[in-house]
Each structure stands twice: as C-alpha cells, then as structure tokens.
Amino acid sequence: MTARQIDYESELNSAQYQAVTAGDGPILVVAGAGSGKTRTLVYRVAWLVEQGIAPGSILLLTFTGRDRAMAQGFFGMSVVVGPAIGPALGGYLAEAYNWRWVFFLIVPLCVAAFIMVVSFIRPTARDKELKLDWTGFLALSLAIVCVQLMVDRGERLDWFESGEIILYACGAVLGLYVLVVHTVTSDGPFLNPQLFRDRNFTIGLLLVFVYGMLNFTPITLLPPMLQNLKGYPDSLIGLLLAMRGVGMVIGFYLAGRMGSLDPRVGLTVGMLLTGTSGAIMATFDFNVSAEAVGWVGVLQGIGTGLMWVPLTTVSFASLPNRLMADGSALFHLLRNFGTSLFIAVSFMVVVRSAQISHFELAQNVSPYNEALRFPSVVGHWDIGSLHGLAKLSAEVDRQAQMIGYANAFIMYAAVCFATIPVLLFVRVRHH
Predict the structure, then answer these.
(1) What is the pLDDT of residues 227-240, one digit of tens each?
(2) At what angle do helices 65-96 and 234-257 cross, to 10 degrees?
(3) Can you say how many angstroms the Cα of residue 311 is from the centroid of all Cα atoms in its chain?
(4) Rounded distance, CA 67 to CA 65, Å?
(5) Would you list the DSSP string of 388-411?
(6) Domains parsed from the chain with CATH numbers
(7) What is the C-alpha end-to-end distance of the chain, expressed in Å?
C-alpha cells in the first residue's frame, strides 16, 4: 500500500475541501446538485469541469488607479469567507451526514449569486467585429489538457514507458507549437502578443502561476495525511483548514495597511511567511498536535493574503485598458493552472517518495536488526509470526507515507523561496 492508495471516500473528502474553499469561481447550481447526486467518478468529474467554466473579471475594467487596489482588496476579503467557513462547515456535513451534502451546499449560494448578478450587473456594448480565434483557443486547450493528464497519470502508468503518456507529451508539444506560431503570425490571435510587452504583467504571470501553486496545495495534502496517518475526523480537519482562512483575513488587513509601501515589500514578506509555513509542515511527524497544524495554517494564510493585493496591483498597473480583459483572463487562467498542476505534482512526489522510502525502510526488517531484539519492540512487531509481520509492514508503510508528505512540503517551501529573487525585476511606478 502506498500513499496514493487512499480509499474512495477519503479522496472525495480531499476534493470537497478544495471545492468549498475555492471562492473565486462561478459554481453553477446544476453542477453542485449534479456533483452531489451522481454515483460514478466519471460523471462527477464531468460536473466539476462544468463548475470550472468561468467568465472574466470585471473589477479591473471598472476601477482604475488606487480604486483598483481597493477593489481587489475587497474582492480578496470576499474570497476569504470561503476558506474561513467552508472547510469547517464542509467537514461537519461530511461527518454528520455524508460528503454529498458539501456539494448540495453550493446550490443556495449559487442561486443567491445568480440573483445578484442579474440585479446589479449591466451588460456593456459588444464589439460585433470581435471573433474568437478558434485555432489559438484549441491549441492552448490541447496543450493545457495534455500537460495536466500527463502529470496526473504519469506516475500510475510509469511515465514514458506508456504509449498513453507519450501521446499526451506529443499533444502538449504540438499544441504549444501551434499556439506560438499562430500567435506571432495571425492578425487576431487568441493571446494578444502586446500583453507580453509589459514587463510587470509578464512577471506578474509568473508570480500568479506560483501563487496558484502555493494557494490550495496545502489544503489538498493535509486532509488525506491527517485522516489516513493521524486518524483525525472530518470535522476536526475542517476546523484546522479553516485556520488558514483566519490567517488570510489578517493577511488582507495587513496588506491594506501596507498600501503606501513598495508592493515588493508585501510580496516578499508574503513569500517568506508562506515558504516558512511549508518548511514547518515538512517537519510534521506522527506526534504533531492539532494546535501546531492550526497555527501553521494561520501563518500560511497570512502569507497568501499579503501577496494577493500587491500582486494584482503590480501586474495590471501599467497595462492599457484595452488589454485589460485579455490580461485578466490569462492572469486567472495561469493561477488556476498552477493550482491544478502543482497539486498533481505534489501527490506524485508523495507517491514516489513513499515507494522509495518503503523499499529503503523494508531493508531494515531483518532478524539481524538489533532494534528488533528489544522487548518493547518485539511486543508490537513479532517478525516470527504472520500477524506480527503484517503489523510491522503497516508501520513501515505509514512511516514511508509520512516521508512522502514531508518531501512534498519541502518542494512547496523550495518553490516559494526560489521565487523571491524574481521580485527584483518588478518595476515600481513612482507618482
């Protein structure tokens, strides 16, 4: 048994926390009801795909200058509500009833959101000559889908030993090649090349990709770790994850107070706090307390909260209004792609590290190991009986899985710290 061999209900619990806390995407009522009622994984994935279909943000076009930073701050604060109450409420519903109620909870919220959209948002004039560049759109979609499938299924299919993975790799390269060539040669490409002439926006794309990688990865790794290795109930896991939302409230408040400072200060402090939280999570063992997990969640929430406002402010500060819609769409696309990609990579690290660690630890299970001669040890794991060997094998697997999670958190911290030097290239406009 490896870290990937989690029971079906546990995998759904991990997914439900991410779905409930993702407060910045439109979630359709029918998709929420469908996710709760369906009984097969294929249909559930289809409903989740429908939930991910998102329109562009209107905040960047509605507000300018300092008002834009304030609007992004309010937007960020509204997003905090999901991470603050979603995990706790979702964990309670999953434990008291079942995981389906987490998806049913989406329905009334989406009804209220739909009513407010119809009541307060007015349509703007449309450019009748504007047409969708299907070639660029399909090429970009092919590249993203193939990369995601390759990373998701690579470990399971032994990577390039599988024809399926080779096919995904070829599809990703083909999609990227067509996208780049079509973008530089077409008159109306799907990705406007003028976007990348703005240095701050280009750096902002890299930073928001990393932000997406850092934002939701811990709340997808912690639930299976705490449930399978520590035996925590869903309700307690939900409360611990909600502490991250509390930290984000503090982070957004501090970001507002730091509005007059160089935005690179907020980004740097946020990156340092987030990376530190990852380094601390890498030291977790079987004796870690619930309080320690909660406080690390607060620290990580403060870091991500501090980063969001200066990140969006810097990225769009010098981008012309005519490019704002395209820029916003690409900005949030990379954020979401970074989230899904890094989660897949993190679980890949957990699985691979657990397999390697299991092999290395199992080599020490031998009658010649001095540790197995102590009465306290032999009382738990008697290698002279099948029952004792089974218990010892389970413990080796448990230790190997914990090493796998530790390695994933080390990678999380390393990515965060390695991104800090990029902030030196951000250009700050002085008024």
Answers:
(1) 888 888 877 888 88
(2) 170
(3) 17
(4) 5
(5) HHHHHHHHHHHHHHHHHHHHHHHH
(6) 8-122+190-362+395-425 (1.20.1250.20), 136-189 (no CATH)
(7) 60
